[in-house]
TrEMBL record:
Signal peptide: 1-27
Superkingdom assignment: Bacteria
Keyword line: Membrane, Signal, Transmembrane, Transmembrane helix
Record bears the keyword Transmembrane: yes
Name of the protein: DUF4436 domain-containing protein
Membrane-spanning ranges: 149-175, 187-211, 217-235
Length: 268
């Protein structure tokens, strides 16, 4: 059981470290891009992606530097909880001379997206250079009309099951008075359940299209749930130790004494 607790704590710490420490690669400062999905600028807008319909992606690149830039491909990725749930890389080579603006339009087929994601997901459009370096990037939120049984949907269901098991294990140990006498150990016992609750909340809000799982939202939710789990474990009552029955509480002792007395009288 201690190994299970340690693994759960390590998982929670790892998830939080990824959420806190993950940072995107730096793009080249000389290239600026404007991106539109089906003619709609993605800046500040939520774009709808229907896997059954192709999307016309328009990229307008402006080179404000003094050297020409070579573009190799355009990449579209959807990320949640620092995990990539879909990525489409389209090769579309073109050059952007210094001080010039170039517009390219390509059609993306998101048919496979139905089995990969569902709900609101932070989406990034990257322009990749000839050496596979990141030249420029634009971000938005995509409303993916995928299946509940997609990878992202099943990921949420798996998180729910694991979290339910974590809560059941901790509460069962509490009911059986098997928690540690140390308050901090009891707190750590409830930590995986708290972290799991935060992760489930983030995915659920995303799938229900209420709140996208962006770092400014998912980090406070997961950290807050982890703190609540720690507090619940810390405030659990001190387990009552089992008391061994005394000789006076054992009814068989009296019976044995009466039998011994009867035997003595018979002998006399």
């Amino acid at each position: 059981m201690r190994r299970v607790i340690a693994a759960g704590v390590a998982l929670g710490v790892t998830v939080l470290a990824v959420l806190l420490g993950g940072s995107p690669a730096h793009a080249a400062e000389s290239l600026r891009i404007a991106v539109a999905f089906d003619g709609k600028d993605i800046a500040g807008n939520t774009v709808t992606i229907d896997p059954g319909k192709p999307v016309e992606l328009t990229v307008t690149a402006t080179n404000s530097g003094v050297a020409p830039l070579r573009v190799r491909s355009v990449r579209v990725t959807g990320v949640a909880l620092a995990l990539t749930f879909f990525a489409y890389d389209t090769t579309v080579p073109f050059d952007v001379a210094a001080g010039e603006t170039v517009t390219r339009t390509l059609v993306l087929d998101f048919a496979d997206l139905a089995g990969q994601a569902i709900g609101l997901l932070p989406t990034t459009v990257d322009v990749v250079g000839a050496q596979r370096e990141l030249l420029a990037s634009a971000s938005t939120v995509s409303d993916v009309r995928g299946s509940p049984w997609s990878v992202y949907g099943i990921f949420g269901i798996a998180l729910l099951v694991v979290t339910a098991i974590a809560w059941a294990t901790a509460l069962l140990a509490l009911a059986r008075h098997r928690l540690s006498a140390n308050r901090w150990r009891r707190a750590v016992r409830f930590l995986p359940a708290g972290v799991g609750t935060g992760l489930v909340a983030v995915v659920t809000l995303s799938v229900l299209r209420l709140v996208p799982p962006e770092p400014t939202i998912e980090i406070p939710v997961v950290l807050g749930s982890a703190v609540i789990g720690l507090l619940l474990g810390y405030l659990t009552p001190h387990p009552v130790p089992a008391v061994a029955p005394s000789a006076s509480d054992d009814p068989t002792v009296g019976v044995t004494t009466q039998r011994l007395g009867a035997t003595t009288e018979g002998v006399g």
